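Hi R.,

Here's the chain you asked about this morning:
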Amino acid sequence: MQATATATEKAMVGQPAPDFDMASTKNLEKLNENVKLSDYKGQWLVLLFYPLDFTFVCPTELTTFSDRYEDFKGIGADIIGVSTDSVYSHRAWINTPRDKGGVADLKYPLASDSTKQVARDYGVLIEDKGIALRGLFVIDPEGILRYKVIHDLNIGRSAEETLRVIQALQTGGLCQAEWKPGQETIKA
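And here is the predicted structure, written out as tokens:
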């Protein structure tokens, strides 16, 4: 399925990340705790936009990032999954076993961009469908957007590559193609 985002994005690498305040599954029982960009000041943040709950590719990538959550925490990073679905849909999906297409035991919150404004701000909203493209954004501890990848709906993202990118950014140096943690950076 080919899709195109039509909104004018505000999310520019090297600039402050667009602010957000969204309902979330942070408190899965009561659904009364929002996620805000300011909550993550002082740490790295990965925003994972995805199209819809209860679909096919989405659970594979969200659970992959969840399975690697401790690796993200170990490098000072946190994760938020974001779609335009409601927090009630998110909760039902989290309560669905993985072998039934759910994301049970997800270790990070899912946020509800029900107004679609955050997806617009980050340039991933498919206006005529009301859903987000797959967008991955890395925000640094000072709230600056440092990395973004946006692509079509059919392909999931890599937790391994996201970890590598954050670690490369954390070196503050020049990292060659295929750089891996522990390798030297380029001396200019």
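One quick note: The mean pLDDT is 93.

Cheers,
M.
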